[in-house]
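On clarity, I found the account of how folds are encoded harder to follow than it need be. Since the whole study asks how a given chain folds, the encoding of that fold should be made plain. The format is easy to grasp once an entry is in front of the reader. For illustration, here is how one protein appears when written out as sequence plus structure tokens.
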Amino acid sequence: MVRETKTPADYITAPDFTVSVTKDYTEFDDVEQVKRINVNNRPFTSQLKLVKKDKETGKTVTLNSASFKIKDANGNYVTQKVSGKKYDTFTTNSKNQVVVFDGNNGEVFLPLSLDVGTYSVEEVKVPEGFLELESPVTFTITNTRNYDVDGDEDPIVTVQVKNDRCYGKLEVKKYIEAFEADKTLVNREDLSGFEFSLYAKKDIISPIDGSVLLKANEKYGTYLTDKEGKIFVSKIPMGSYILKETKTKDGFVLDDKETAITFKQTDTVTKEYTVTADIENKTTKYEFSKKSVTGDDELEGANLTVTDKDGNIIDEWTSGKETHMIEGLTVNRVYTLTEEIAPDGYVKATTIYFTVENTGKVQKITMIDKTVSMSKVDVGGKEIEGATIQVKDKDGNIVDEWVSTTESHLIKGLEEGQTYILHEEVAADGYVKATDIEFTVSKEKTDDKVTMIDKIVDMSKVDVAGKEVPGAKIQVFDEDGNIVDEWTSTTEPHKIKGLEEGKKYILHEEVGPEGYVVATDVEFTVTEEKENQHLELTDKQLFVKKMDQLDKYVEGAKLQVLDKEGNVIAEWDTKEDYAVSGLKAGETYILHEVEAPENYIKAEDIEFTVKDDKENQYVEMIDIKTDDVDITKYDATSKKELPGAHLEIRDKNGKLIEEWISTEEQHKVKLVVGETYTLTETIAPDGYKVAETIEFTVEDNGKVVQQVQMFDELLPARQIVNTGDNSNIMLYALLASGSAVALLGTYYFERKKEEE
């Protein structure tokens, strides 16, 4: 075996090979035999892999591709021909671009190997977010070095091309607005301590591999201004950001505006892109004004202070013709504006608590001094003169006292927020004394007005139709039974005297008017509502009606009304509906008929109760009217009275009214008018047939006496009738028919006579 142990420079070592030494037979045995073997060495070449790297992190750049050209030692660009096409520019594979040559993201393999020699790499296309190379990358291919090899044991030379990235730089400059105030709490010489935060507006993407360095709205960092009000932030990844002021100093307004900060690469040589943000901060400004409720001009002479939550005095002044300005109160802190001394003639205002808002506009506080007036009026709103009025504090001390006039009164000595009692010591003539009024001086910045109203309570004595009834004696009692007022009713309402609001009273009718029922007592309360009060005591009437069963009025009956002890309350003769006097509502009485008119049956007593309502009441007593009826029994043939008949009268229900035996005189029976009766002959006189029953109705004929006639017929003479002898049958039939006709004719004649 033959092995090449030393290879000439820039050549590839030949592979091992074997040589066989054998005995050759020739005709010249003494001649040395030589075997010649040619060993060929191929010039050394290597594949070239270019890798794009981030110089800072050493990571392979895969997001965007880079393009390169290669120069040999003679300054010529390397050109390689593949499949009939020449290539002099070689681009790395990326996420967004695929090249024709094999390689991974961020790498590129030259299609053909390079010979031994020194080369330089020039970057002709720089990936976005990176800077161009400061100088080409030089490398040498030699067979004396140990290279990586591929699967075919061919060497691979790897060249890394490293680039710097570009960054952003932020400069913040803080300015403070100028403002003149009576009092300033702001230090414009030291602007340190303002806090700013930088947030990603959109996702911040790494130019190396496309990974998200910062999500949208995520905070990148927080920074504080220096004494000059400046902030410097370097090496900020390229992209879009939002700058916010997140904390301000006392006395300043937090700037809530968002400032857009964008770092955008414009070339491949600028290492840092600077963005400057000039941000002005405003101060808080408060304007304090002192006014009256009705005035537009400043109210002079009030001593005012502004204190913080711990009671420290921030500023104090006396109000003048101009407003007072304070600059630099801290946002969101609570301060107190207090009126230490009010101007003469004004109520001391309540303390005002206020919180400073985050605004650069002038915030205004107006403290108003108010007045409190009082009016003494009737329910119509008219001022009442002559009432003595007092105002007392919660301890009962008199703060102010006066007599009412036709003008309202400005109450002295009051303070806002305090509670007082308005008391009517003496009421004006003709008015009810009002109840005390508790009132609080409001803190609202409007003049207060307290009104005390004196009301009137009047009373009407009326009938159920609402008409005034004169002649009733009325009394009013208080809760202790004392008579407060009494009078006799007229046709006008009466104004009750001596009443007080809020108290209970009894309205009592001592004597009722003629023909009216005395009303029950009425309890009433004089309300505290500020409206005139009207009371009504209604007297009803109780009427007695005297009627008969035919619903006709009965005149001439003598009636009485008795109380439960039997005393006669009223007595009269009936003529028309009678209104009973002297009755009391709720009481029970007896209606008694002393004497009934002629032909009337005296009614039974009626017990009735006077209802306690406001409707007229009627009590009806019915007298049963009767009439004399003449009953006559006649012989049907002679038309003469027929004695000896047994007769009876029954009503419609079959009840026996009367029975008798007829004589030669008419028989009188007293029966109820309008009722129907039956006249029945129970036994006929000897020789007569029993007559048929007669039904008749007693009619209301006035003074005409009603008559009822009954006719009896003779029985036929007895005769012996032989068998088969019918000679007299026809005679008997004719006699019977003639009797019937005569009887009917007589009856018709008598009825006709009665009707006439």
